[in-house]
Amino acid sequence: MRRSLVRSSFAVEGADPVIEQCMRDLREVLRDDDLDHGLASLVPRLERAVLDTERNKQARIERLAQGLQRLTAQLLALPLPSEVRKPLKAYARTVRTRAAQSRELPGLLGELGELQDRALTVQMAGAPRAVGLFGRLFGQREAEVAASVAVMDTAVAEPLDADSQVAQETAAVAPATPPSLGAE
């Protein structure tokens, strides 16, 4: 029995500092000859430590589940296509129950990362690309200016064509008058 208690005390190491201290005390009690007296004082302290650790673990899991739900809600607030929105909604429905089991947490985080990547990829594909400093300095700005100048040339050329057509009609109707040579 002593050997199994010592092995169990080593198996619990790393869980919680208070429990680790109780396990070290348990190993000390097992080495001493006064096992009844040592265990009588250690068992209530160990029970309290285990209950506190379990409560803290549940609170941490609850906070983590709430954080995952908030992140999911933020992604669902984005305008996403249905092929991204449906898996995100399914994830949101199952996150709380899956987060209750600590072995599910790495999978939940990985799945959320993939869903976030898909959602942001869709968002970035629809957003106009920002022009950086070098793009503005070399080329990108010139291409934008050339495009706007071409649009302006087209808009200006249309009224000129209309004016020249009116001028031609006026010249055909009015008799040609020779320019005066002495006016200059």
Describe the protein's topology.
Layout: H1 2-11, H2 17-31, H3 35-76, H4 82-99, H5 105-126, H6 133-137, H7 140-173
Helix pairs in contact: 1-2, 2-3, 3-4, 4-5
Please tell me about this protein's structure.
This protein has 184 residues and is an all-alpha fold. The protein folds into two domains: 2-126, no CATH class; 136-168. Helices cover 79% and strands 0% of the residues. It contains seven helices and no strands. Helix 1 (2-11) packs antiparallel against helix 2 and helix 3 packs antiparallel against helix 4 (82-99).
* Total domain modules: 2
Mean pLDDT score: 76
* Unreliable segments of 5+ consecutive residues: none
Q: How would you describe the shape? A: elongated
- Spell out the helices and strands N to C: HHHHHHH
The number of E-state strands comes to 0
The first-to-last residue Cα distance is: 128 Å
Oligomer: single chain
In this structure, how is the largest beta sheet organized?
none
Number of helices: 7
Kindly state the percentage of residues in helix. over 70%
How big is the Rg?
A: 40 Å
Pairing-aware structural class of the strands and helices? mainly alpha
State which percent range the strand residues make up: under 5%
Write a compact overview of the structure shown.
The protein has 184 residues and is mainly alpha-helical. 79% of the residues lie in helices and 0% in strands. Helix 2 packs antiparallel against helix 3 (35-76).
